[in-house]
Amino acid sequence: xxxxxxxxxxxxxxxxxxxxxxKNGTFLFDRGxxxxxxxxxxxxxxxxxRDGRLYALLPxxxxxxxxYTHQGLTYGGLVTGAEATAAGVLHLLEQMNAxxxxxxxxxxxxxxxxxxxxxxPADEDLYALFRCGARLVARGIxxxxxxxxxxxxxxxxxxxxxRARRHGVEVRVTTCIDDFWPILTAxxxxxxxxxxxxxxxxxxxxxxxxxxxxxxxxxxxPDGTPVGGMLVYRTARVLHSQYLAASAEGxxxxxxxxxxxxxxxxxxxxxxxxxISTEDGGHVLNEGLIYxxxxxxxxxxxxxTYAYDL
Length: 310
Fold this sequence. Notes:
11-stranded mixed beta sheet; 31% helix
C-alpha cells in the first residue's frame, strides 16, 4: 500500500529534491517552473510514499470531472526514482484510480514523459496505463538526434550553413531575450497567425526562476544586427528547442543553420530535441517543418497522450 497525499506549497523543497534525484524528472516539474501559471490551473498534484519514503510524484491539475497530467506542461506523468518497479507502479496507479473515483474524477488524461528524457528505463507507467484500459488519443511527432553519432546534414542545410559563414553570422549564448522576442513574435504572427505560448515577461521570469536551464542561442550579423535565435531548455540529458525563429534577413543568410551548428556542439547532453511538428493532436503533419528538422539529421520521437475512464 502507498500513502498518497495532495501536494501543498509547504512541500516544495521535498518535491523539487525528488525531481532532481528521479530517473525521469526534468526541471519542468520543479515547482518554481510549474507554479508560474498556477492561477490558470486547479493544481491536483500528488506525492506518493511507501513506508514513509517518497516513491513517485504526479504533476496534475483538475478540470471538472477530468484529471490531467498536466495541461500546462509539454509532458507529464509519474516522476519516479530508481526503485520504482513495474508491479509497484501498477499498484500505485490502481490506488490512485480508487482515490480519484472517490473524489468524483471520471476521466484521466495522461501525458507520459518521452523516453529520451529518462536517465534509465522508466516505462513502468505505460504498462500500468495499458492495464487500466487507456487508449492513445493524441500523438505528436518531435524530431530528435543523438549527440553521439550525429547524422550528415542534407545538402540544402549544408549550403545554407556555408552562406551563413560567408555573411559572417555569429552565434552567442545568452539569457537576454529582448532582441529575439520581436523576431519570434513577428514570425509566429506571419506564418501561423498566433503568438508565443509565453509572454516576454513570463519567459524573463522563468529564466530567472530556473537558472542554468533556459538560454538563447542568438544569431547576429557582424554589425550587431540580430537575425534569429533558438530558445532552449536544458535538462540533464536533452537540449530542447522551445522557440526558433529568424528574420527575413536571417533566413536569407542562413542564421538557423549557424544556430544549429552551435547547438550541436553543446556538451553534456545525450539528445537534441527539435520539438513537435504536428497539429490537431497529431492528425496534421507539417511536412515542410519536419523536413527542415530531418535535414539536420533528426528522426522521430513521439509525444503521446493517453486517456481512460474511471
